[in-house]
Amino acid sequence: MTIRLEGKGVTVTFGDMFRKVEAVKNIDVALHAGQTIGIVGESGSGKSTLARVLAGIQVPTSGEVFYEGTNIWQGKVSYPGEMRKKVQMVFQDPYGSLNPRMRVVNAVAEAVKFHQNADGEQARQIALDLLERMGIAKNDAIKLPRALSGGQRQRVSVARALSANPEVLIADEPTSAIDQSAQSQLLSLFSELIAGGLSVILVSHDLGVIRYLTDRVYVMESGDFVEAGDTAQIFEDPQMEYTQKLISSIPGHKKLKS
Questions:
Q1: Residues 225, 230, 235, 238: is their CA dihedral positive or negative?
Q2: Residue 112 in contact with residue 162, Cβ under 8 Å?
Q3: Backbone region of residue 223 per phi and psi (left: phi > 0; alpha: psi in -120 to 50; beta: other values)
Q4: Residue 184: which residues within 8 A CB-CB, separation 6 or more?
Q5: How far apart are CA 66 and CA 79, in angstroms?
Q6: What is the pLDDT of residue 256?
Q7: What percentage of the chain's residues is helix, strand, coil (to nearest 5)?
Q8: CA atoms within 13 A on the CB side of 1
Q9: What's the pTM?
Q10: DSSP for 201-231, written as a single string
Q11: Is 12 part of a structural domain of the chain?
């Protein structure tokens, strides 16, 4: 099976000569074509930093990231040229990733123009179609981001990411800032995208979401992976005390039947 995205020996150190903190410690991680992996851990575990490294936003202190065997960094530029389209990221705060003065259809159309070289009217129609696919009606598509709910804004962010027709989507806590109903809608959307063959890295502290969507789970504590395995195995028979603690915190959690 093709490895889409791979991190080898990824380390991220913050601080100065007086005090340094290793946010990510010599991590190896691989995402195969058509696979969905989850990276879980408590706040401050380093999972979002790792996601930013894999997305080419954060420069690792050491280690490398490869897309289908090619290093994503060429000099100071990550995901150069056509490679940029292949990996897209959805952030925890959808409002922060949208221009508050730009109507959401225009924000998506702008991304379509950039990634697909479409002209103005064609880009707008593609944007409207993408937004409709995300459950955003035309009368909402012409609104400013502040006029939409958190769940709607997050789906707009997914639409922008999909404008590049990516092979990989990295989602950092996509459900944490939205209500339960919007979470359900977003999870259904992700399920459809995954069923369509999109490879996904899902970063979350919500193990219920991870259990629902992923094939494989990496458990992160203090910048390091303490456990990894198939999702069913991790939830049914976690080996590490830290993982057991995380899973026991899920409301109504019951062991999976063998």
A1: negative
A2: no
A3: left
A4: none
A5: 10
A6: 44
A7: 40, 30, 35
A8: 9
A9: 0.90
A10: EEEES-HHHHHHH-SEEEEEETTEEEEEEEH
A11: yes
**What are residue 201's DSSP bridge partners?**
37, 170
Question: Residue 137: what residue type?
Answer: A
* Residue 184 maps to a domain: no
Q: What is the DSSP letter of 158?
A: H
Rounded-to-integer distance, Cα 119 and Cα 136, Å: 22
Q: What is the pLDDT of residue 176?
A: 80
Distance CA 233, CA 140 (A): 42
Could you list the residue range(s) of the whole structural domain that residue 245 is in?
1-80+168-174+202-258
- Report the half-sphere exposure of 237 (CA within 13 A, side-chain side): 5
Predicted local confidence at residue 97, as pLDDT? 77
Whole-number Å distance between alpha carbons of 233 and 38: 13
Let me know if residue 146 belongs to a domain. no
Structure tokens at 196: 């369509």
pLDDT beneath 70: ranges in the chain: 251-258
Which pLDDT does position 258 carry in this prediction?
A: 39
Instruction: Indicate the residue type of 10.
Output: V
Tokens of 10: 């990824």
Does residue 238 lie in a domain region? yes
Cα dihedral sign for 220, 191, 2, 233? Answer: positive
Separation between Cα atoms, residue 239 and residue 200, nearest integer Å = 25
Total domain count for the chain?
Answer: 1
Most distant CA atoms of the chain, gap in Å: 56
CATH of the domain at 207: 3.40.50.300
24 to 74, 191, 204: CA distances (angstroms): 22, 29, 16
pLDDT at 37: 97
Helices (runs of H) and strands (runs of E) counted in the chain: 9, 12
